[in-house]
Amino acid sequence: MADILGWIVGAILEAVAEFVVELLLHLVWQMITWPFRAAWEWASRRFDW
């Protein structure tokens, strides 16, 4: 019984950890690419491509 409970808790913790890591990677990617997206939007409005 304790083995099954430990496996379930481990699986839940692993899923939460994976979600947090992917969320942090997404936020870092957004911070890195934000200036380029903003510049592209400005240029698109400015030069009316």
TrEMBL record:
Superkingdom field: Bacteria
Protein name: Uncharacterized protein
Keyword Transmembrane helix: yes
Organism name: Fimbriimonas ginsengisoli Gsoil 348
Keywords annotated in UniProt: Membrane, Transmembrane, Transmembrane helix
Keyword Membrane: yes
Transmembrane segments: 6-29
